[in-house]
TrEMBL record:
<protein>
    <submittedName>
        <fullName>Uncharacterized protein</fullName>
    </submittedName>
</protein>
Length: 418
């Protein structure tokens, strides 16, 4: 039985995925669906959906126990010719991109057509006349406006978040990559899998070897993406009755006992967190300059706990606006009375809260842990926050975000201390 996990986006919100949970799919091409349910397919090694209905490739073990291949009538003709002369193998990988573009590879061959120029240059750079210099591809994907990601088996990586110009950039994908790059000791070679949608701009999924993952997907497929992430490396354990949806696989990190919030504080946190998420989502849409488009849910893994974080909903509509005010903490939370905190809190141009107030609010999330704080701090990076601000308020907004960034950083350091 193949243990390879994969996720492929298709037309009309369709997808096919395989993880340790098993096979999932929605709205497949009729011929592919018929092949899967016909009894001829015993196990699936790999599947790829293209940008048109009958463009697909399936690598599978048939009822005779042999590796086999199937493809749709609208699969790129050049790729069909390649597959006809290729020995079926569980090691074969195929990615289908926009229009007639494709990439097919296995340990001993690679073929492609109509790739983004930068991606093609990267692949050419991995090759020499004598074989692989940087290793064969580990994972390669691309989408509209030349967004792409390529990682070799030896750890070489190239990626791009779209063509030049705000309207052609994948903002959530770009934001994710910038967050991860900002992490100390982050290495792109830890990416385990990534898929970009060939049709819908800024729809993607990426997961790292440590289980951290991020994605942007139509709301109707949110549950499928979360299930895929949770079961990517191993079958997830059944949730307990107090559990909820999570952006992480089965490993867990215990919360401190005092992280369990009281109901009033938790309600204040959830209201504040939802307002922050909505404001950031609106500003992200406004800053990207995108016209109204499909609703997407940005899913970020918050911690190894079972309780979910506040999702970020991006509604790409006409009401999107940049930030002009700071999301201050609720007054009912900012109750620290220490003398040393009085002066900073009284500054009308400051954060109006001290470290103790911020800690109290964040503990009310019920998610308080090293990993969750690390993700929270990234949201307040002054450069990232500044991109969401109206120009006339940008410097003031960055200053406030920097205060928040430093406070969360100090809370992280306290958890690091023995």
């Amino acid at each position: 039985m193949s243990n390879t996990s994969f996720f492929s986006f298709g037309p009309d919100d369709g997808f096919i995925s395989k993880s340790h949970e098993g096979l999932r799919y929605r709205d497949l091409p009729p011929t592919l669906h018929q092949l899967i349910v016909s009894g001829s397919v015993v196990d699936i090694h790999w599947a790829a959906l293209g940008s048109v209905r009958e463009s697909w490739v399936l690598s599978f073990k048939d009822s005779e126990g042999k590796s086999n291949l199937g493809w749709g009538t609208d699969t790129p003709k050049r790729l069909q010719d390649i597959l006809k002369s290729t020995a079926p193998s569980q090691h074969l990988r195929v990615t289908l991109g926009p229009k007639q573009s494709f990439l097919a590879w296995s340990p001993d061959f690679i073929r492609w057509r109509d790739l983004p120029e930068d991606l093609e240059d990267a692949l050419q750079g991995w090759l020499t006349p004598f074989g692989w210099r940087d290793g064969p591809p580990k994972t390669v994907t691309w989408g509209k406006h030349s967004a792409y990601f390529a990682l070799s088996e030896y750890g070489s990586v190239k990626w791009g978040a779209g063509a030049a110009g705000d309207s052609n950039t994948w903002p959530i994908f770009l934001e994710t990559t910038e967050e991860w790059v900002s992490e100390p000791r982050f290495d792109w070679s830890t990416v385990a899998f990534i898929a970009l949608d060939p049709l819908i701009m800024d729809q993607f999924f990426v997961i790292r070897e440590d289980g951290t993952w991020a994605g942007s997907i139509e709301e109707s497929n949110e549950d499928a993406l979360q299930a895929f992430a949770s079961n990517f490396f191993r079958k997830a354990k059944a949730r307990t009755k107090t559990g909820g949806k999570s952006g992480q696989p089965t490993s867990s990190v215990s919360n401190p006992v005092d992280a369990i919030p009281d109901a009033a504080a938790q309600a204040l946190y959830e209201k504040w967190a939802t307002d922050v998420a909505s404001g950031f989502a609106s500003a992200l849409t406004a800053s990207s300059g995108k016209a109204k488009g499909p609703k997407k849910l940005e899913i970020r893994s918050q911690s190894h706990n079972s309780k979910p974080g506040i999702p970020l909903v991006v509604n790409g509509g006409a009401n999107a606006k940049l930030l002009r005010t700071f999301p201050y903490l609720p007054p009912a939370i900012t109750t620290c009375m220490l003398q040393s905190c009085a002066a900073p809190k009284a500054d009308p141009f400051g954060l109006r809260a001290c470290k103790h107030d911020v800690e109290r609010l964040l503990r009310a999330s019920g998610l308080y842990s090293f990993e969750w704080l690390r993700q929270e701090r990234l949201r307040w990076h002054p450069d990232r926050f500044g991109r969401l601000c109206a120009e006339e308020w940008r410097e003031a907004g960055k200053k406030l975000a920097e205060e928040m960034f430093k406070i969360v950083g100090s809370l992280i350091n306290e958890l690091k201390s023995p």
